[in-house]
Amino acid sequence: MGELGYTLKVFRRIGMLKPVLPHRLVGAALQLAKWGPGLPSGVNAAARRFPHQLAIIDDAGEITWSELADQINQLTQGLKDRGVEPGDSIALLSRNHRYMVMAMVAIMQAGGRVLLLNTMASRSQLGELAKRESARPVILDQEFLQVGADVDHDDLVLAWTDDDAPADLPTIAGMIKGQPTTSHPKPSRSGQIIIFTSGTTGLPKGARREEPKDLKPLIAFFGAIPYRGNSTVVLAAPLFHSWGLINFGFGLSTAPTYVLRRRFDAAQVLQDIEEREARVLVVVPLMMQRLVDVDPAVIKKADVSTLEITASSGSALAGDLANHYMDLFTDSVYNFYGATETGWVTIASPTDLREAPGTAGTPPFRTFVKILSPDGTELPQGETGVIHVGNDMPFGGYTDGNTKDFIDGLMSTGDLGHFDENGRLFVSGRDDDMVVVGGENVFPRELEDSLIDHPDISDVVVTGIDDQKFGQALAAYVVVKDGASVTEADLVAYAREHLPRFAVPRKVKFLDELPRNPTGKVMKRELPALD
Description:
There is one protein chain. By secondary structure, the chain is of the alpha/beta class. The chain folds into 3 domains: 3-204, Rossmann fold, CATH 3.40.50.12780; 216-430, ANL, N-terminal domain (Rossmann fold, 3-Layer(aba) Sandwich), CATH 3.40.50; 435-526, ANL, C-terminal domain (GMP Synthetase, Chain A, domain 3, 2-Layer Sandwich). Helices cover 30% and strands 24% of the residues. The chain is built from 16 helices and 25 strands. The strands form 5 sheets. An 8-stranded mixed sheet has the order 2-1-10-9-11-12-13-14, sandwiched between helices. It has a 7-stranded mixed sheet with strand order 6-5-3-4-7-8-17, sandwiched between helices. Strands 15, 16, 18, 19 and 20 form a 5-stranded antiparallel sheet that branches. Helix 9 links the parallel strand 9 and strand 10 (257-259). The longest helix is centred in the first third of the chain and has 17 residues, at 65-81. The termini are far apart.
């Protein structure tokens, strides 16, 4: 099938070629022509095509696409009245809900730069970042007011508020009242989104995410993850993270109904899927683990038969989690391997994960992946080297002026991996995570994948430590399931039975929980010292 035929097939499935009333189709086309690919065109086109369809279901209730577009236009005017001009930076610290969506799109309609902050940002980080980036205003949920304590009080705007919201601070809900719902002209500078890292010390690093210049990235994404038009999408992954954001942004072209919750609750997710007959669930792997761990009686009672896609990314899938999840629910896991900087690299389908557990999948449409040696030579199938990628998702560099390493137009992911005989990619780990144990190259993930399958273990992370005898060794931080009992000697014996001797942990430390950020990644710098 040629590129045109492939494109038409994808467009037909996601509903872009679905018959609608002529005036609605013209209205949507005009929005795309006006704004170009991006959040403003996506929201406004959906509002023209399906004005009465629910756009968002959240903890505040329901809102249609036409209502959402109108309120975004009102907020855009409210921001302009506060002095926001094209090129200005506005920081956004928020959980998943309608006001976060409204803020992102309104800032872009005003031509501003959206600084998306991790909800684990500290007070000092937010204060220093707002100063460094000249962010005014700073929009945040009421629960983060203490995080914003070092920001000028006059620069604060509240997104989500509770009953006891301070009366002296403006709110998004208040800013839209009385404002016109008329559309806005395209600004002199296009809006931009900056995604900030979740570092635990120092200032987060901002990665500029350029808007696509055409629809090719959308074709690649939906060609690999088979969304359908007008589906209900339970978007549990945080919107401040690239994975949640890409599913929201690209998903707009399918005119879906998004279910957004401020906090992840596994039982609530199952309820939302059943009650709303959701076809898509967007998660990070930790959320999949939480769903697997739900009370078996609750799982048995839940009807999630409508679920066609469980789109996962953000961190590695541990052990046999994907297949365990699919055994309990539906064969629906599509695992996305990539990063904020690279966009996607590969995507694993349910078939890939069933046939080759642990694979990161294959490169999607118009994505080029090579395994290179340190000197830049391409390595043959089966040999491990640094993964490099090229695709149609442009990386705009970091806000400090730095960028990633490139070789012949391909960006380094910083990960090591190899392709198997079927063209499926396997990721060993970060190139700086490799541990040399008695001359053998070992990646912590190998031990992590083994221990997470132990019947008494609910969570685990493995790090490298210095070792007098072997130079380096592995140490495992382990969380035991409620009611279970296991010792260090038990886990060492288990590892010896399942792994080569150099992958057996030298030390094991038991914790009540691992320090994870909202996307599920373990904050290794916050792990306690070993005894």
